[in-house]
């Protein structure tokens, strides 16, 4: 079985992750490089592991998480679809069996809120992991005076935790937002579609999605 470690050490994958960030830097987007894909990979695996999915599914979720944004190296538009095709070919060359690489392609192709939805356990875990990574560390722009709404919202999030409660069948995104930098309402203005997507991804896994901001349960 191809493992996450095999994927992380693949030179083609490394080049695509780095190239994707280079392009997004030019476009003024938040960080989507090693930090982000590492967190998404880890959280996607943790979600399925906590819900007692087989270790093979957990490993596939980790791989999907690590590869999910390589399509940004092609273009930000439709990056989920181009990334899914890139991942399929890379994993084929690495010797992954057709069923596993198809699962990963499906998950990556459905992780973007504009065109996707949860279509499998792996895709649901990927969505929850990806949409939970909101944090000031993702802001590449160092000039606060030129922040757009995405920069301001991400920078205002000083702490973000995704908590999986197996007994209560619940996943909680717990955020701490500095309201002097950004009102909580701005978070919903930017991330409402992602929040709804996370809710339905949790439903696919037969768990509940909960959002807590500054100690207040909002969903």
Please supply descriptive tags for the structure shown above.
about 220 residues; alpha+beta; Hypothetical protein af1432; 4-stranded mixed beta sheet; 9 helices; 4 strands
Strand order of the largest sheet: 1-2-3-4
Distance from first to last alpha carbon = 39 Å
Q: How would you name the CATH homologous superfamily?
A: Hypothetical protein af1432
Mind describing the biggest β-sheet?
Answer: 4 strands, mixed
Q: Average pLDDT, to the nearest integer?
A: 94
User: Any idea of the CATH topology?
Assistant: Hypothetical protein af1432
Q: Give the overall silhouette.
A: globular
Q: Helix amount, in percent?
A: 40-55%
Q: Provide the number of structural domains.
A: 1
Element order: H for helix, E for strand = HHHHHHHHEEHEE
**How much of the sequence is in beta strands?**
5-15%
CATH class: Mainly Alpha
Number of helices: 9
* Structural Rg: 17 Å
How many strands appear in the DSSP assignment? 4
From the helix content, strand content and strand pairing, which structural class follows? alpha+beta
Give unreliable regions as ranges.
none
What is the second-level CATH architecture? Orthogonal Bundle
